[in-house]
Every structure is written in structure tokens, then in C-alpha cells.
Design brief:
Layout: H1 3-20, H2 23-26, E1 36-40, H3 46-56, E2 61-66, E3 71-72, H4 78-82, E4 91-92, H5 95-99, E5 103-106, E6 109-113, E7 118-121, E8 126-128, E9 131-134, E10 138-140, H6 150-155, H7 164-175, E11 181-186, H8 196-211, E12 216-221, H9 229-240, E13 244-247, H10 249-253, E14 255-258, E15 265-267, E16 271-272, E17 276-279, E18 283-285, H11 287-291, E19 301-302, E20 316-318, E21 323-324, H12 332-350, E22 360-369, E23 372-383, E24 386-389, E25 395-396, H13 403-425
Parallel strand pairs: 1-2, 1-9, 2-5, 9-20, 11-12, 11-17, 12-13, 19-21
Antiparallel strand pairs: 3-4, 6-7, 7-8, 10-18, 14-15, 15-16, 22-23, 23-24, 23-25
Helix pairs in contact: 3-12, 8-9
């Protein structure tokens, strides 16, 4: 079996193992007592947790509360910037979950009462729960870069949550003259989608190569290394020559401030001026998790990594980007895997059983061109209460892969997206 085939097999096997955790409780429909589980957040973690919990035990009343009427995927949203995908192609509704018997409520949760076991929405509705699952994504640390506020970010869009800012950034790139400079500032770890800024550079370079070939992209990085770095830099060089410049933190890539009027980025060594500027803010757990007192000094949510129960409020489970999950990165597939593990643990507890032994997986694809894909995959286990990588499982795309292999990985990236969204909403 080739390395590529082995990694694909591992990804499939680990996903099947996660789903298999739910098999036993699902067969005991009448053994589990009725319970109310409220899930807040309808993204990669929350939608999956709601679906798999309902599958595990239909007698559990599952309510999914999401403030938006639809879900828009951040994975693949960089293709909107290249012009290869529309925002509509990243948009999904919740009808599939409704057909499964899950109550979908469009509401923004503004209050969590962990003692009385209820949450309240901006609508005034109160949702009582026996177990609460939070998948609130990330929020931004607006105090980390002087001058960068939510209002300023509307003029210089980070587009780190797919939606109107994604379209605005695309429009700014379209309006930029050939020969202009596009600047991305990449945040420090940890943050949502570690390879995202570097794929963004590639996707914008793909657009520039076709329409604005004299233009340049600068990545100002708070870090001295990044995810899939060798693969990205080789791909950039192969397809775009010197169009993309990466400035490490040690070389002056740390951004300390932004001029709110011009968008000039003030670095530790020099200032940078671009025609289009996309500063991606440093991040922390979702605002709801912060306001509910579920974070520690790191800004993220400590959890029991076997069940994702909060170590601060055990009847609240936190999954996805907001939680501290060992070595798992903050990605859509990590959230998917965590949602399944969390659902299995809650179903078992409601049934009076011990939580099953968890299995976790992550796969992240990045597109350098429509026919050049790269990936990293990880399979994880629990050791001494911490999620750790399984040695020899997963891995990176080979550095010396040929064009055919890169094209296969690009096709895998699109297959992955179709499969994971079908898993969420089908």
C-alpha cells in the first residue's frame, strides 16, 4: 500500500471507529432514562454532537440552538477568494437534523445558569437541560493588536468566519490594481485552522497569477514555524515563484498595531503598507464560553478529554475550537471527532454506563492550486487523561510527490468536504 493509500485508510478507519463508539447505546433505546440535552452551536462540532446523540438514543430530547439561520463553512472558504467557489456552495441548512427529530431553535444564547441547568436566548426563551454541549467556536482578542477593533476589521476584513467578510475581502482583491500588495497577518498559536493563512496566500496567488500577475502577497507571522510549512513553501515556489513572501516572527513578522485609517501594519522591525490588508486577530474561546466562566488563564476551556465535560462545570461539555484537547488542532474535523466522542459519553452516562474508550481523528487538506493538494492527518488516543498522537498513524503528504499524487489529494480535499457536510446535515 502506498503512503497516500495508507493515510487514506487510516483516516477512514479512525472515522469509523469514532462512529462505532455509538453503536452499543443506540441498541438500548428503552434502557436509557429520558433526558434533555441542549446543544449550542450548529457547526462542525455541535451539529454532529446533536445528530449522533439522537442516533445513540432517540428517547433523549435533543435541542440544537444556533443564532444563524444557516451554517457557512470556514473550510474551503479560501476558494471564494480565488474565485473557484461561491459562498452559497459553503452554505447549509438544518432541515436534515429536523427530519431526525432534533428541535432546531434559531436563537442567540446570552446566559448560562450552570447551577439551575438552563440557558436563555436573546429571544427570552429559556432552555432547560440535564446536559449542555457548547460548540461556540472562537472569539477574537481585540486588545492584542493596538488599533484593531471590530469596526476596523470591517474595513480590513480578517474573513476568519465565513460570510460577509469573505465576500468583502474578495471584492477588495478584485478592485486592487495589478502590481498591488496583499498583506495577511497570521496570529500566534493556538488559533482556528492552523494552515488557513498559508492556504489563503496560495488561493489569492492563484487568482493573482491569472488576473494580476504583477501583484505580491506578504504574510506577516507571529510565529517562526507553521503547519505544513515545507509543503506550502515548496508549492508556493513551484506555482507562484516569488509572488508570496513569508516574514517570520523573528524576522519582524509580529504585528503590534494597525493604523485604523490606512491599514498600515506596525511591526517590531518596520511598518508594512498594503493595498489590501487582512489582519487575522489572535483568538480565544467563543464569547459565550468566556462569559460563562468556562475558560482558564489561557483563554480556552479546560475539559475532561475523555468526555469533554468542563472541569469547571461537569454538566457542561465543550467541544470544537473552544476546548483544550491535548495535541488535537483546532479544525473542523477535530470538532467532528470530538462531537462524536462527546455524544457517546453523554449517551452512556444517561444510560448509567461508563463512557466508552474514545478514539479521535483529524484530517486537514489545503489547496495550493485546484490540482495541487496537501494534507496532514492524525489519529489520537487518550493517555493519562491527555489526548496524544498515535505514533506512525497519519502524517504529512510526501514532499517528493508527483503531480498526479498532488491532483489526487486535491480531489480528496473536495471529497472530504462533501462527506463531512453530508455527515453533519444528512
Amino acid at each position: 500500500m502506498t503512503d497516500l493509500g495508507r493515510r487514506a485508510f487510516l483516516k477512514t478507519s479512525a472515522l469509523a471507529a469514532s462512529a462505532a463508539l455509538l453503536t452499543s447505546p443506540a441498541r438500548r433505546v428503552h434502557a436509557a432514562p429520558k433526558a434533555r440535552v441542549v446543544v449550542v452551536g450548529g457547526g462542525f462540532g455541535g451539529a454532529i454532537a446533536a445528530k449522533y446523540l439522537q442516533m445513540a438514543d432517540p428517547e433523549i430530547r435533543v435541542t440544537l440552538v444556533e443564532k444563524e439561520p444557516v451554517f457557512r463553512s470556514c473550510p474551503m472558504s479560501n476558494e471564494v477568494l480565488s474565485g473557484d467557489r461561491s459562498l452559497d456552495a459553503l452554505t447549509f441548512d438544518f432541515r436534515g437534523l429536523t427530519r431526525r427529530g432534533i428541535a432546531i431553535m434559531q436563537d442567540e444564547i446570552t446566559e448560562i445558569d450552570a447551577e439551575q441547568h438552563f440557558v436563555r436566548g436573546s429571544s427570552g426563551n429559556r432552555y432547560n437541560y440535564d446536559k449542555l454541549i457548547l460548540s461556540p467556536g472562537v472569539s477574537f482578542r481585540w486588545d492584542a493588536i493596538e488599533g484593531l477593533t471590530e469596526e476596523v476589521a470591517e474595513r480590513f476584513p480578517h474573513a476568519w468566519k465565513a460570510g460577509p467578510q469573505t465576500l468583502k475581502l474578495r471584492q477588495q482583491l478584485e478592485a486592487m490594481d495589478d502590481g498591488g500588495v496583499f498583506i495577511i497577518s497570521a496570529p500566534p498559536n493556538p488559533f482556528r485552522c492552523p494552515p488557513g493563512p498559508y492556504e489563503r496566500a496560495a488561493q489569492v496567488a492563484h487568482y493573482f497569477k491569472q488576473h494580476k500577475p504583477k501583484s505580491k502577497i506578504i504574510i506577516l507571522d507571529a510565529k517562526d514555524a507553521f503547519s505544513k510549512q515545507g509543503l506550502f513553501q515548496a508549492g508556493w515556489k513551484q506555482h507562484y515563484g516569488d509572488m508570496i513572501e513569508w516574514v517570520s516572527g523573528a524576522a519582524g513578522g509580529i504585528v503590534e498595531a494597525i493604523d485604523p485609517k490606512t491599514g498600515a501594519l506596525i511591526g517590531t522591525v518596520e511598518d508594512f503598507h498594503g493595498n489590501v490588508v487582512s489582519p487575522i486577530p489572535p483568538q480565544r474561546a467563543g464569547a459565550l464560553a468566556v462569559s460563562a466562566g468556562l475558560t482558564d488563564a489561557s483563554g480556552w476551556c479546560p475539559v475532561d478529554q475523555k468526555t469533554f465535560a468542563s472541569t469547571l462545570h461537569p454538566d457542561i461539555h465543550v467541544i470544537g475550537d473552544s476546548c483544550i484537547a491535548g495535541v488535537m488542532p483546532k479544525s473542523g474535523y477535530s470538532a467532528n471527532s470530538q462531537g462524536k466522542v462527546c455524544a457517546a459519553a453523554i449517551a452512556a452516562e444517561i444510560a448509567g454506563q461508563a463512557a466508552p474508550e474514545p478514539s479521535y481523528v483529524n484530517t486537514c487538506y489545503s489547496l495550493i492550486t485546484p490540482d495541487h493538494g496537501i494534507s496532514v492527518a492524525g489519529v489520537y488516543d487518550l493517555e493519562d487523561g491527555q489526548i496524544v498522537g498515535i505514533e506512525g498513524a497519519g502524517g504529512l503528504s510526501p514532499m517528493d510527490a508527483d503531480a498526479r499524487t498532488r491532483a489526487i489529494e486535491a480531489r480528496f480535499a473536495h471529497d472530504w468536504f462533501r462527506n463531512i457536510t453530508a455527515d453533519m446535515f444528512g
